[in-house]
Amino acid sequence: MAELSLNRVSYLYNPKTESEVRALTDVTLSFPERKITGIIGHTGSGKSTLVELLNGLLRPTSGEVTLDGENVDGDWKKKYEKLLRYDREHGQKTNRHSLKKRAKIAAAEMRRTICFRVGLVMQYPEYQLFDETVEKDIGFGPGKMGLSDEDIRERVLESIRIVGLDESILAKSPFDLSGGQKRRVAIAGVLAMHPEVLVLDEPAAGLDPQGRMDIFDCIRRYRDELNATVVLVSHSMEDMASFCDHVVVMNRGQVAMQGTREEIFSRPDELVRMNLDVPQITRLMMMLREAGLQVPYGIYTVEDAIRAVSTLFDATGQAGGDADE
Amino acid sequence: MSVPFIQVENLRFSYLEDDRKKSEESLVLKDISVQIEKGEYVAILGHNGSGKSTFARLLTLILEPTGGKITVDGIEVTDPQLSDEELQKLRHKIGMVFQNPDNQMVTTIVEEDVAFGPENLGLDPAEIRRRVDEALAAVRMEEFSRREASRLSGGQKQRVAIAGVIAMMPECIIFDESTAMLDPQGRKDVLRIMDMLHRERGITILHITHDMNEAARADRILILSDGRIAGDGTPEEIFSRREELNRIGLDVPQCAGLMLELKKRGYPIRGKITTPEDCVDSLKASLYLNGGGTVHG
Amino acid sequence: MNSIAFGQYYQASSGIHRMDPRTKIIAMLLFIVATFLCKNILSFALLILFTVVLSLLSRVPMRLILKSIRGVVFIIILAALVNLFLTSTEGATMIWRIGEWNGREYGITQEGILRAVCMVIRILCLISGTSILLTFTTTPIEMTDGLSQLLSPLMKIKIPVDLFAMMMSIALRFIPTLIEDTRRIMNAQKARGTDFSSGGLIKKAKALIPILIPLFVSSFKRGEELATAMECRCYHGGAGRTRMNKLHWKVSDTMGLLLFALLIGAVIVLNLTLRGVTPAIA
């Protein structure tokens, strides 16, 4: 169970000063469990702010981010109000003092554990590597969780396998690895904390096609093995189309569209109007439509396109050469 | 003139200092021979660690080759007898734009950064001013000239970096994965500037990338794999060798993938396949030839 | 988001903003000399007047100037107390006698109060005057340029002023980048469970290791790439380098400097003519 949702979340940078910037306005969202949700939008659309709100790095200016119904930023007042409301609704006598105490304990626990429950892989995560060996670095997060040495070792081995690296790498210094390996070790460091929700900001940026595939494979493997929910921010529409189950489109700090990828990519015109890219294959299909060819909407993978275009050819074969122009 | 602009012969390079340790394995570049003509637009493709960036650094005379010869504009740049002055002169013929825009800006204010190169050339202040204004206008950043570079977006920073190179008036610009860290808008802007520099100013463009869609814009693609040239041809020729590309960790653009697969399944595909525009034309032509029954005006 | 206020530069268009940084550096030195030359009430009054006019001319809001003073309040109080209690009581008009110790009388005297007040004025003027002349109206880059040009005669005795200026300029350029790097790395480590706020000093220091090491690594990488980029742009040290923006000494700069020289002159004249007429201080 890991239901991560945002309820009417707004965020302002430097509120009530001259340099106030509104980053998010009234965002209500929930991330489907055990699914991969992609967030797209151009720079300044509020994506990055959204990511930092998900694990409590930022606190919403108003509204609430909750994990299984609990506020993730560890604000005890919100928890207190919730307990108070619960008591009132259930007609229970309220001991305000003990409620406050309970709320504070719960909030502190949330603050301590939220980063382990919602794991965040930042952009260019290889820059967070610091320890002497790969093993120590991956074990850093689990160590902070207070796990025993054997458990840490187990987690390290498991996550190095999930990211598809060989165990022999564990004894090396993380600074001696290649770019792609560093990236995967950094991701393993987050996976080792077994987050229920895994949030990744441009995890494949700057990698070559094979490197990108490897990263997406290991994210998928983690989701499948640990039943985790995945939230992925990316600029690459082609990666989104081939990899995500759900897509959220952000525009000017608000949710502009959300739905399954079929739903989103069958409305390419709207994406284009928001100045966003569509997968190249979708663009080709749009152009074919404009040229008067009958291809269906909602094509976003090469496989679908092959099917659609072969139908066109087959139709011409059957039609036997009568053009209606 | 039959001398190519850049001529590379049997280029070898190892990062190891000690000559004895330079075994075949330590060589980042094993044996590269290639010629690039003035005014060409070449994409250099290769997976991470294929030696692309090393190759670029050798061309800009930042690194010295372990073996082989590089000639730029008829002058052998690898000649150890070359004086520092001659080296400097050669160096401003070939400019380079790097991957991370943050790591190539020297000063805080945009126009002062653009002026950095011309200042190093010891030009007259009025001439520097003229070049800086012209270069900033070319990348459409003139209104940002007095701004602080740190407050610009990644794409804007990269445009300033390009202006810094333009102001040196190079004959060739190497873009070393200059779009890799940018958002889609920034990418588009930089790619458009590359096209403009190539078309309007006749500047030779070498674009190092692993984005196949970007490589498709070039006239010619060089493929580097494991320190060797694994392919050299037009995008059309290169993309038709899909299996080979896959083997070295690369792929073809989606539209080329579609066309190749259709061809493989026996559909009569004629014409170009590198860009969506080409594909639309080719598909239309192929379908018409085949009867064109589903075309609705 | 990215607007990290750097230094205390206040963007405005004023005569002082437009002054050549070299003028402002010299003017600041003259101003410091003037504050220390002040010896009687009238010269202090002149100093206050001059500072107020300076702040009005600069168009820097008063609250910002007061803010910059807030940082040195402790020093001002200390200086005031020292002067109040430790001014020699010999021949002074005692107001409140504390007692005698080691054959010396201690207490608050009229002279002590006067000295304390003047010391406070002196520090206030010193801080606000110098910050108006430099930090508020001069960008760090202008300051570097001004300083390196003022010091350029030192090149003759083989002190590489141009190299220092280049280093300074690069350092200034990279401060916002480093701040952003630090923020990013801190967030990444927070996301891995590092707690920077709780625990004792040792625990807090330990929590910095995962920040500092990546910060060093990325800074070295940036440095290396920057060096390559500079070399590609034909940087080969200061020799033969020209500058696009040369500093221009204007008539107004000469006038400005004259005003500061006049201030010193006036203070000296006041000191001399009023000797014995008003109580001398310090």
The overall pLDDT average of chain A reads 89
**Relative strand content of chain A:** 15-25%
Shape of chain B: globular
Number of strands of chain B: 10
Any idea what the shape of chain A is? globular
- Tell how many strands the DSSP assignment of chain A holds: 10
- Which series of helices and strands of chain B comes N to C? EEEHEEHEHHHEHEHEEHHHH
Sequence of secondary-structure elements of chain A? EEEHEEHHEHHHHEHEHEEHHHH
Radius of gyration of chain A over all CA atoms, rounded: 23 Å
Tally of individual helices of chain B: 11
List the uncertain runs of chain B: 292-297
Based on the model shown, name its key terms.
heterotrimer, A: 325 residues, alpha/beta, 6-stranded mixed sheet, 4-stranded antiparallel sheet, 13 helices, 19% strand, disordered C terminus, B: 297 residues, 20% strand, globular
List the helices and strands and how they pair.
The complex is a heterotrimer of chains A (325), B (297) and C (282).
Chain A: E1 4-13, E2 21-31, E3 36-40, H1 47-54, E4 62-67, E5 70-71, H2 76-89, H3 96-117, E6 118-121, H4 134-138, H5 140-144, H6 149-162, H7 179-191, E7 197-201, H8 209-226, E8 229-233, H9 237-243, E9 246-251, E10 254-260, H10 261-265, H11 268-273, H12 280-290, H13 302-319
Chain B: E1 6-14, E2 27-36, E3 41-45, H1 52-59, E4 67-72, E5 75-76, H2 84-91, E6 94-97, H3 110-120, H4 125-138, H5 154-166, E7 172-176, H6 184-201, E8 204-209, H7 212-215, E9 220-225, E10 228-233, H8 235-239, H9 242-247, H10 254-264, H11 276-289
Parallel strand pairs in B: 3-8, 3-9, 6-7, 7-8
Antiparallel strand pairs in B: 1-2, 1-4, 4-5, 9-10
Helix pairs in contact in B: 3-4, 3-5, 4-5, 5-6
Chain C: H1 15-18, H2 21-37, H3 41-58, H4 62-70, H5 73-86, E1 94-101, E2 104-109, H6 110-136, H7 140-151, H8 161-190, H9 201-232, H10 251-273
Antiparallel strand pairs in C: 1-2
Helix pairs in contact in C: 2-6, 2-7, 2-10, 3-6, 3-10, 4-6, 5-6, 7-8, 8-9
Task: Give an account of the 3D structure.
The complex is a heterotrimer of chains A (325), B (297) and C (282). Chain A has 325 residues and is of the alpha/beta class. Chain A contains 13 helices and 10 strands. In chain A, a hairpin with a 7-residue loop joins strand 1 (4-13) and strand 2 (21-31). In chain A, helix 2 crosses helix 3 (96-117) and helix 6 packs across helix 7 (179-191). With 297 residues, chain B is an alpha/beta fold. Chain B has a domain at 253-297. Chain B is 38% helix and 20% strand. Chain B has helices spanning 52-59, 84-91, 110-120, 125-138, 154-166, 184-201, 212-215, 235-239, 242-247, 254-264, 276-289; strands at 6-14, 27-36, 41-45, 67-72, 75-76, 94-97, 172-176, 204-209, 220-225, 228-233. In chain B, the strands form 2 sheets. Chain B has a 6-stranded mixed sheet, sandwiched between helices. In chain B, strands 2-1-4-5 form a 4-stranded antiparallel sheet, covered by helices on one side. In chain B, a hairpin with a 2-residue loop joins strand 9 (220-225) and strand 10. The termini of chain B are far apart. Mean pLDDT of chain B is 89; it is low at 292-297. With 282 residues, chain C is mainly alpha-helical. Chain C folds into 2 domains: 15-149 and 248-273, no CATH class; 160-232, no CATH class. Chain C has helices spanning 15-18, 21-37, 41-58, 62-70, 73-86, 110-136, 140-151, 161-190, 201-232, 251-273; strands at 94-101, 104-109. In chain C, strand 1 and strand 2 (104-109) form a beta hairpin. In chain C, helix 2 (21-37) packs antiparallel against helix 6 (110-136), helix 3 (41-58) runs antiparallel to helix 10 and helix 5 packs antiparallel against helix 6 (110-136). The longest helix of chain C is centred in the last third of the chain and has 32 residues, at 201-232. Chain C is extended, with a radius of gyration of 25 Å. Chains A and B meet through helix 8, helix 12 and helix 13 of A and helix 6, helix 10 and helix 11 of B.
